[in-house]
Design a protein that fits this description.
This protein folds into 2 domains: about 1-120, Response regulator (Rossmann fold, 3-Layer(aba) Sandwich), CATH 3.40.50; about 130-265, Arc Repressor Mutant, subunit A, CATH 1.10.10. Helix 2 runs parallel beside helix 3 and helix 6 (about 150-160) packs across helix 8. The chain has helices at about 10-25, 35-45, 65-75, 90-95, 105-120, 150-160, 170-175, 185-205, 230-235, 235-240, 255-265, and strands at about 1-5, 30, 50-55, 80-85, 100, 130, 140, 145, 170, 210-215, 215-220, 225. It is elongated and about 75 Å long. By secondary structure, the protein is of the alpha/beta class. The chain contains 11 helices and 12 strands. The two termini are about 30 Å apart. About 45% of the residues lie in helices and about 20% in strands.
């Protein structure tokens, strides 16, 4: 693990570095007195950190500006702010940081933060489907892409994911997938065939239980799905930082959710 420690006060920086060395003795540690120095190390020397522990109030380039600049050139870097000023907490979280520690920072604080980051990066449990909503919609089973029999079977599954486990009627599905459809009887028959195809696809990988059908409604079981969108809603900062402004880009009906996400996370 490569860690940057940044603080304009030498004594505070030394204390922070001691805490990091104690909590993560095997880490490669770089310390800086200025945010621009840390940014130059990334852009000019190609030294990309896994985690940055940075003060917020610093001359020239403060921590908030630094966080935005680091994310622009190293999107996977985790940012953790260290500060004596609690009033910056809201703005810090709006910058999609991974942590916010009050000074003086201790080794226990660092250890807890790194443990939390490790948990956020944990691999997908083997009994869950991995669903990617950011960018193009994709589904994976045991690190292999799931091949759907029909494009509309995949789109239906995407719509059910978007509904976050809420039960959907044939009318709701038809309105989303075919907004100009007028023959609801014909639409209902098409939906039944698509659901049957989707179920068959899931049966091939032993995950048919992901799909719930009851009283002419259909839904997905969230507990059997590992989804970047769901983790974002739950406050997982790794998922928040993975969002690049695109959500289910192939589907026009997803634009409503994409708009809400853009307003909340990219403004």
């Amino acid at each position: 693990m490569r860690i940057f420690a940044i603080d304009d006060e030498s004594g505070v920086l030394e204390t922070l570095c001691e805490a990091i060395r104690s909590a993560a003795p095997g880490a490669e540690l770089f310390d800086f007195r200025r945010g621009q120095e840390a940014l130059d190390a990334i852009t000019e020397k190609d030294i990309s950190p896994d985690v940055v522990f940075s003060d917020i109030r610093m001359p020239d380039m403060d921590g908030l500006r630094l966080a935005a600049a680091v994310k622009a050139v190293s999107p996977d870097t985790r940012i953790v702010f260290t500060t004596a000023y609690s009033q910056y907490a809201l703005e810090a979280w709006q910058r999609r940081v991974h942590g916010y520690l009050m000074k003086p920072v201790t080794a226990e604080d660092i250890r807890d933060t790194l443990d939390n980051l490790h948990m956020q990066s944990a691999p997908v449990p083997p009994n869950k489907l991995r669903v990617q909503c950011f960018g193009h919609f994709e589904v994976f089973w045991q690190d292999q892409p799931v091949i759907f029999m029909r494009k509309q079977s995949k789109e239906l599954f995407a719509f059910l994911i978007d509904r976050e486990g809420a039960a959907c009627t044939s009318e709701e599905i038809a309105a989303a997938l075919w907004e100009n459809e007028r023959d609801m009887k014909a639409a209902g028959e098409r939906i039944r065939k698509i659901i049957s195809d989707l179920k068959a696809t899931l049966q091939k990988i032993g995950m048919e239980d992901v799909l719930i059908r009851q009283r002419r409604q259909v839904a997905v079981r969230r507990d059997l799905i590992d989804c970047d969108y769901y983790r974002m809603l739950e406050g997982d900062m790794t998922a928040v930082n993975a969002y690049r402004g695109e959500y289910m880009a192939d589907y026009s009906w997803a634009e409503l959710t994409a708009g809400r996400m853009h307003f909340r996370y990219k403004r």
